[in-house]
Design a protein that fits this description.
The complex is a heterotetramer of chains A (about 375), B (about 260), C (about 290) and D (about 325). With about 375 residues, chain A is an alpha/beta fold. Chain A contains 13 helices and 14 strands. In chain A, the strands form 4 sheets. Chain A has a 5-stranded parallel β-sheet, with helices on both faces. A 4-stranded parallel β-sheet of chain A has the order 7-6-8-9, sandwiched between helices. In chain A, helix 8 (about 230-240) links the parallel strand 8 (about 220-225) and strand 9 (about 245-250). In chain A, helix 3 packs parallel to helix 4 (about 105-120), helix 8 (about 230-240) crosses helix 9 (about 255-260) and helix 12 crosses helix 13. With about 260 residues, chain B is an alpha/beta fold. Helix content of chain B is about 45%, strand content about 25%. The mean pLDDT of chain B is about 90. Chain C has a single domain (about 1-125, about 145-275), classed as ABC transporter involved in vitamin B12 uptake, BtuC (Orthogonal Bundle), CATH 1.10.3470. Chain C has a two-stranded antiparallel sheet. Chain C starts with a helix and ends in a 14-residue tail after the last helix. Chain D is an all-alpha fold. Chain D is about 75% helix and about 0% strand. Chain D has helices at about 5-20, 30-50, 60-75, 80-105, 110-130, 130-135, 145-155, 160-185, 185-195, 200-205, 210-235, 245-255, 260-280, 285-300, 305-315, and strands at about 140, 235. In chain D, strands 1-2 form a two-stranded antiparallel ribbon. In chain D, helix 1 (about 5-20) runs antiparallel to helix 8. The chains are: A alpha/beta (about 375), B alpha/beta (about 260), C mainly alpha (about 290), D mainly alpha (about 325). Chains A and D meet through helix 1, helix 3, helix 4 and helix 6 of A and helix 1, helix 2, strand 2, helix 13 and helix 15 of D. Chain C: It is a multi-pass membrane protein. Chain C: This is Branched-chain amino acid ABC transporter permease. Chain C: Pfam families: BPD_transp_2. Chain C: It is found in: Cell membrane.
């Protein structure tokens, strides 16, 4: 009795395992594993929405080379282990020809080996430089590296004659990763970190850390690498303590939502490196990016009713690069797509103009970042 | 020479003296009963002697060694075992396993051997299982060995607890109302069992409400009321003691009043 | 010296947030011996519903009232649908049920509302109040006052009202409580409604400071749980003191030792307290009955 | 007896592991299978702690983290072979469990829950904060175990996912065998006795503090080995492995399937591991459904899935 029962139960599980729905056959299968939920949902959610919206758009317009795109999106919840399973599933079960995703550095690093082994092109949406340095044949990424954001900020500081700063970073993946990369290059700009504080991703009050920074003699500016609610609270506490020094935020909060959360008053004067997307309306007509970012911003805000964010822009660029590569390759062979991605040249995206080479699987330079300042609840380009 | 010596034992709960200044002694093979109305502190006394509660005052000596406030498992190693008024059966185990578990001190060994089921571990298990079956036979539960313990009747569980306590091969055995919930036949069986165990040289301390049984098998009786010892002596003298009668009648009168109200 | 004062004010602000969550735990725990890990979701719901009602054009006080009533309703539903049917289940099952409820509520919130972070305006503006060289936001005073007020009400409830004593009696001995004529089901429903309402009120008070989104509940629940255990589960005084202590501890660690390990310091102290006082600072001592 | 006999359990487990691949349409299923086994191993450890000894821990992911990071760090810094690193991790977990367990296990119920939870959070905090060593929240790479190459040299050529399916399946069977041995041994009886009635266990001579510690240390070693397997299989590890959610996941697997039954607990691991894969069909509703499943099972099948179903079927048969 007992034997047959347990067998039934286990057979049931097995049936469950086997019962995974196999999606209908389609022309071009593109996969994505994104952190739609979990601590990085702030990033992953707009990414997923963007991909779905754009694929619908492309298919409605007749697809790529006359073939429709079949997009398969999985939500890894920000868990690298889950991401790895979904990556395996995309490659082995769904048999996709290319994958976009890895919202966070952790998930991206965890799934790279899967695609390198399977020789499937993979475009990551995460910040860390480790993803493309050293260059791996099948791995690309669209966002600027955090290191570039750091460089942009330090350049701006240097211009303003700032040489001693306080650092307050989130202890989540984004904040910790950017902090690390900033500290790696800060010496090149002759800037010194006098105070190095952190806060947890769910903390409610950062005044102790900011009080310590404020109390350090010689600090000329404060940099806050982080994303989510942390930087908004830091900005509000910063105003509360009347620190009075320039405050630099990161590209992690480059969205209108940040101004809303921090409050226009507290956010006044905050500087951060952002993409053209954020200041779409302010770009001169001559700007090559204007058409692209305005089109994406309008479409996204119309489709979702939410303000556009930099992160959705990363997904936008990844899909554009991929579609461009497939069009040029005239084939859906993964290796042909890979070669074509590496040949991407002069492609205008939300983050900048992308030109990839065998040595550069990112294809962006610092000019793609724009230094922005918050003034009267809006953005201003300060360059 | 007494095996178990209790002197001036007492404990307070929330400022109330639950048991105070109780003392008596037990010789090898002797059966001593503790009686008294409900709430007299009998079970509390048991809990202090067996190390479940730490007494606030007084001293417990086992075979001349001071064992006051010693944890129960160390008392067990010194040969003191007990049963419980509110059953403390290992519910998820079979009847046999409950009895085997009583052999813990004899069968325990290295965890490593147990994990890998080494011959030494299997030998230990087998030995305690054989002994457990014999004990179950002795308390009349031999046939129920494979049943789930939870499925037994109250009286049977009482006997199972006795078997488990005997597995320790104790020198002192504390029995807390062993015959509660048993019918006349079962009570008599337990009666015999206790006498036989005592005859083997085990000292028995008994709490029991069945006065007939107490009078029949006790060598010595200690009477508690409101946490204090009010009398002690041979069964015949206790039965005639006016303080004892008053304690019981007083309690019964109070109970009767409660029932009316 | 102004640093110390600033750390203290920060600690009290955060501590009051923890205390508000911890106070929510006490009622349900007192009535049913259940630690409700979905308590943090009540706080989240309080903030989220208020935000969306406010965004839809309702005045803030009305939006907050709606949020509190709606959350109390959800609390009652949680009791009727999940806790009552599971009466008598072991601690570990109850932990899983309430964590399941927490995941469920989170999933539903993200569907009904969104995954964005939100904030609504502070009740009395954002102009910091200066105290001896340190500053505190008016909203922090609201939070502190809220924690004290709820503590005081709970204290009155448990010591001065018949129904409050009925809750305690139910916790001590359910059957005995039934025998003396207490409707224990009603007591349970009431305590879930109250806990949820307190949680939602906490959410309304803290959102201008901490911000809110669908997934803030778990972190709040963990901290509130830790605070309640530090003070001694079930005791409103324990919840208040535990919460404030935890907040101040974190702020002092962040200020004087290392902001990286401020959460660690909090948990180390909790562990140390529990080792020395297994029932928390103000918990009742229990004796095994055998 | 709640557990079916040792041999039957092991036989069923081994048979399912061996036969299931016949039905696998792609090697992705091997990946899911190997994850089930890795989780199953941690859950087997929790069966010892929760099912046998009746203790609770909301911090066991901490030990998984120690095991995982041992495999990442020891080869780089100590030059150890990854397999030895896993052993080192297990030893370290055992040592830490021994030190932490003694004071923690004096606590009961929710107090034990919060103390163990605190411990787990401390471990994940260290892993996440000591970025120079551990790479911080972004995680770090883990070296190749190398066993696959050895197998290939002797003529057994397995793909990566196939190898990990077989290897973690084997480790799970061994783990289950040990735990089942323990169940029927004097130590196992002492653990189950203190679960049934702590005071009665003490009066038959069980040193309750000692045996709780034994269960805690053993389950820590299981969790540690499970973490090592995960790290070696993924060749990459982040502090998530030690996080609170992972602890909860492990306990839920054990209790959902039935912590009193080895097969039940492993079934719980199988269900909770595959559930997110199945629920991708429901996209947005995934969390909702997960929460619902957790609640429904615990409300209506209090002993866990397998024991409850078994009881119901037995009830009908009689």
């Amino acid at each position: 009795m007992k034997f047959s029962l347990t067998t039934t139960a286990l057979a049931g599980t097995l049936a469950l395992v086997l019962g995974f729905a196999a999606p209908a056959l389609a022309d071009i299968k593109i996969g994505a594993t994104l952190s739609e939920t979990g601590p990085a949902s702030f990033l992953g959610d707009p990414e997923a929405k963007t991909l779905k919206m754009l694929v619908e758009e492309i298919n409605a317009a007749g697809g790529v080379n006359g073939e429709k795109i079949d997009l398969i999106v999985y939500d890894d919840g920000g868990d690298p282990n889950k991401a790895r399973t979904f990556a395996t599933r995309l490659v082995e079960d769904d048999e996709v020809v290319a994958v976009i995703g890895g919202t966070t550095t952790g998930t991206s690093m965890a799934i790279i080996p899967v695609f390198e082994d399977a020789e499937i092109p993979f475009i990551s949406l995460a910040g860390a430089i480790e993803i493309i340095d050293p260059v791996r044949p099948f791995t690309f990424k669209t966002p600027h590296t955090d290191r570039m954001a750091c460089a942009k900020i330090f350049e701006d500081m240097k211009k303003a004659g700032i040489s001693k700063i306080g650092l307050i970073s989130g202890s989540d993946g984004f904040g910790a990763s950017m902090r690390k990369q900033c500290l790696e290059i800060i010496g090149e700009y002759g800037i010194e970190v006098l105070a190095d504080e952190t806060y947890g991703p769910t903390d409610a009050d950062m005044t102790p850390q900011l009080t310590n920074i404020k109390g350090k003699d010689g600090v000329q500016a404060v940099l806050n690498p982080g994303f989510g609610q942390g930087p908004a609270i830091v900005t509000r506490n910063y105003a509360q303590l009347t620190v009075g020094l320039p405050l630099y935020q990161s590209h992690g909060v480059a969205s209108d939502g940040f101004i809303e959360l921090a409050g226009a008053e507290a956010a006044e004067g905050v500087r951060l490196p952002g993409t053209a997307l954020l200041v779409a309306g302010l770009l001169p007509e001559s700007d090559p990016q204007r058409a692209v970012v305005v089109a994406y911003k309008d479409a996204y805000e119309k489709a979702t009713g939410k303000p556009v964010s930099t992160f959705g822009g990363y997904a936008h660029d990844a899909l554009r690069i991929l579609v461009d590569a497939i069009t040029r390759a005239g084939s859906t062979e993964p290796s042909a797509i890979r070669d074509a991605i590496e040949g991407t040249s002069g492609l205008v995206g939300t983050t900048g103009t992308v030109t990839m080479t065998a040595e550069d699987h990112l294809g962006l330079d610092l000019s793609a970042f724009r230094m922005l300042q918050i003034e009267k609840g809006g953005w201003k380009i300060v360059e | 020479m007494s095996l178990l010596q209790i002197e001036g034992l007492g404990i307070d709960f929330g400022g109330v003296r639950a048991v105070n200044d109780v003392g008596f002694s037990l010789k090898p093979g002797e059966i001593v009963s503790v009686i008294g109305p409900n709430g007299a502190g009998k079970t509390t006394l048991f809990n202090m002697i067996s190390g479940v509660y730490a007494p606030a005052r007084g001293r417990v000596a086992l075979d001349g060694e001071d064992v006051t406030r010693m944890p129960p498992h160390q008392l067990a190693r010194r040969g003191l075992s007990r049963t419980f008024q509110n059953l403390q059966i290992f519910q998820s185990m079979s009847v046999l396993e409950n009895a085997v578990a009583g052999h813990h001190l004899h069968e325990r060994g290295s965890v490593f051997a147990d994990l890998f089921s080494l011959p030494a571990a299997r030998r230990r298990s087998r030995a305690s299982e054989e002994s457990a079956r014999a004990l179950l036979d002795r308390v009349g539960l031999g046939r129920a060995a494979e049943q789930e313990a939870g499925s037994l009747s109250y009286g049977a569980l009482k006997r199972l607890e006795i078997a488990r306590a005997l597995a320790l091969k104790p020198r002192v055995l504390l029995l807390d109302e062993p015959a509660a919930g048993c019918n006349a036949v079962e009570t008599e069986e337990i009666d015999h069992l206790i006498a036989k165990v005592a005859a083997e040289g085990v000292s028995i301390l008994l709490v029991e409400h069945d006065m007939k049984m107490v009078m029949r098998i006790s060598n010595h009786i200690v009477v508690l009321d409101h946490g204090e010892k009010i009398a002690e002596g041979e069964p015949a003298s206790i039965a005639r003691d006016p303080r004892v009668i008053e304690a019981y009648l007083g309690a019964q009168a109070a109970e009767a009043q409660n029932a009316d109200g | 010296m102004p640093e110390l004062l600033q750390f203290l004010l920060s600690g009290i602000t955060v501590g009051a947030v923890y205390a508000l969550v911890a106070l929510g735990f006490t009622i349900i725990y007192n009535a049913s011996d259940v630690v409700n890990f979905a308590q943090g979701e009540f706080v989240m719901l309080g903030g989220m519903i208020t935000f969306f009602a406010h965004a839809a054009g309702l005045p803030l006080p009305l939006a907050a009232l709606i949020a509190i009533i709606a959350t109390a309703g959800i609390g009652v539903a949680l009791n009727k649908l999940a806790i009552e049917p599971a009466r008598g289940a072991p601690v570990v099952s109850l932990i899983i049920i309430t964590i399941g409820a927490s995941i469920f509520i989170r999933g539903a919130t993200q569907l009904v509302f969104d995954k964005q972070i939100h904030r609504f305006p502070a009740f009395s503006g954002d102009q910091p109040i200066l105290i001896g060289g340190a500053t505190i936001l008016p909203q922090s005073l609201w939070v502190i006052a809220g924690a004290l007020a709820i503590f005081f009400c709970l204290w009155l409830f448990f010591t001065r009202t018949l129904i409050g004593r009925a809750v305690l009696a139910t916790a001590n001995n359910r059957i005995a409580a039934q025998l003396v004529g207490i409707n224990t089901n009603y007591v349970m429903t009431l305590s879930f409604a109250m806990s949820a309402a307190i949680g939602a009120l906490a959410g309304v008070l803290v959102t201008p400071i901490t911000l809110t989104s669908y997934d803030v509940g778990l972190a709040l629940a963990l901290k509130g749980f830790a605070a309640a255990m530090l003070g001694g589960m079930g005791n409103p005084k324990g919840a208040l003191v535990g919460g404030l202590l935890l907040g101040i501890l974190e702020a002092m660690t962040a200020g004087y030792i290392s902001s990286q390990y401020k959460d660690a310091a909090a948990f180390v102290v909790i562990l140390a307290v529990l080792f020395a006082m297994p029932q928390g600072l103000f918990g009742r001592k229990s004796t095994d009955r055998v | 007896m709640r557990l079916s006999s040792k041999a039957t359990t092991l036989l069923i487990l081994a048979a399912v592991i061996a036969i299931a691949p016949v039905f696998f349409p792609s090697s992705y299923y091997f990946r899911v299978g190997s994850l089930i086994f890795v989780n199953g191993l941690a859950v087997t450890g929790l069966v010892i702690l929760i099912g046998y000894a009746g203790q609770i821990s909301l911090g066991h992911a901490g030990f998984a983290g120690i095991g995982a990071y041992a495999c990442a760090l020891a080869p780089v810094h100590l030059g150890l072979h990854p397999a030895l690193a896993a052993v080192l991790g297990a030893a370290l977990s055992a040592a830490i469990a021994f030190l932490v367990g003694r004071p923690i296990l004096r606590l009961k119920g929710y107090y034990l829950a919060v103390a163990s939870l605190g411990f787990g959070i401390l471990v994940s905090m260290v892993l996440s904060n000591e970025a120079q060593l551990t790479g911080g929240p972004d995680g770090m790479a883990v070296p190749e175990l190398g066993l696959r190459a050895v197998l290939k040299a002797i003529g057994i050529d397995l793909s990566n996912t196939e190898f990990w399916y077989a290897f973690s399946g084997l480790v799970l069977v061994i783990g289950a065998w040990l735990a089942l041995n323990l169940y029927h041994s004097p130590t196992g009886r002492a653990l189950r006795a203190l679960h049934g009635s702590e005071v009665a266990a003490r009066t038959v001579g069980v040193d309750v503090a000692h045996y709780k510690l034994v269960a805690f240390v053993l389950s820590a070693v299981y969790a540690s080995v499970s973490g090592s397997l995960l790290a070696l299989q993924n060749k990459f590890i982040t502090p998530d492995v030690a996080g609170f959610m992972h602890s909860i996941e492990m306990v839920t697997m054990a209790v959902l399937g039935g912590a009193g039954s080895m097969l039940g607990a492993i079934l719980g691991a199988a269900i909770l591991t595959t559930l997110p894969q199945v629920l991708t069909v429901f996209q947005e509703y995934e969390q909702l459904m997960l929460g619902l499943v957790m609640m429904l099972v615990m409300i209506f099948m209090r002993e866990g899935l397998l024991p409850s179903i078994a009881r119901r079927i037995r009830g009908r048969a009689e």
